[in-house]
Structures are given as structure tokens and as C-alpha cells.
Amino acid sequence: MDPRFNMFDNEIAMKFFKRFANAGMVIHQSPLPKSTQELVSLRASQINGCGWCIDMHTKEAAAAGETAVRLNLVAAWREATVFTEAERAALTLAEEGTRLADAHHGVSDETWAQVRKHYDDDQIAALVSLVALINAANRLAVIVHQQGGSYEPGMFASMSS
């Protein structure tokens, strides 16, 4: 599969990405734990089949100290013992928020109750925003066939300002 369009060589796309990166910075600077941010981004990207974002978030998580065991088990987190109850709540929200079209109920009341149990209002605001943002990023990359493999940790750090 060849890339269809190079978003990084387009002026309009780059203007959009700068603003997109600024929105991401709000989440990055929030009190939502960085490990949770990366796990949620990785899980949504796996569901959406976004190789670019899977590449990015596994590398960013590893660079931030996340273990290979946890990264390798994200796709099967329900069958793993390495995630906390809070992370499980966030991963459930990420899955239900990503698969909106697959379920008539969207995010369940049970999932919401678990998220409320483990996160404060600022963390919830960041978590909900993160699920929306990563799903948008996945769609951008999947639509243009942006392939994974070339991402280097921190390569977009200068984009937000």
C-alpha cells in the first residue's frame, strides 16, 4: 500500500497539524498520567488499524519508559495482569469511544462509572479529549495511507507552540 497523499508537504495540512498539535499539548500537559495517554492512544490506533499512530505511540511510550511487556499486551489488555484498574477503565473508555458505530449505547454507564471512580474532572476532560483526538489522527493517517515505521520519538515536538 503506497501513501496516497503527503500531508506533511501541504501548506493547509501543516497549518491544521500545528493546531492539532497544540490541542494535543493541552492533553499532554494535563494531569492524566502519560502512560495512560500512550496506552489509550495505542489501543484506539490498534482498533482503527492506523500503522502510523501505532508506530508513534509505541515508540513514544517506550521512550518515556513504558515496558515492552505492557506495550505488547495492550491489544489483549483484558487477558493481562499488567494493567491497573484505572488503566483498565481508561482502555475500556477508549474502546467504547472508538467503536461508537459498533454499539448502540456508545460509552456504557458502567464504563463511565469506572472512569469516574479512578479519575478526577481534569483527568476525565483530558481522557475524553484524547479519545476524540486520537480517533481523528487515526482517520487522517488511514485515509491517506500514512504508513508506520519511520516515526522517531519527539519528531513533532517543535510543531506545537
UniProtKB/TrEMBL annotation:
The keyword Oxidoreductase applies. Residues 15-96 form the Carboxymuconolactone decarboxylase-like domain. It holds the Pfam family CMD. One of its GO terms (molecular function) is peroxiredoxin activity. Keywords: Oxidoreductase, Peroxidase. The keyword Oxidoreductase applies. This is Alkylhydroperoxidase AhpD family core domain-containing protein. It comes from Micromonospora rhizosphaerae.
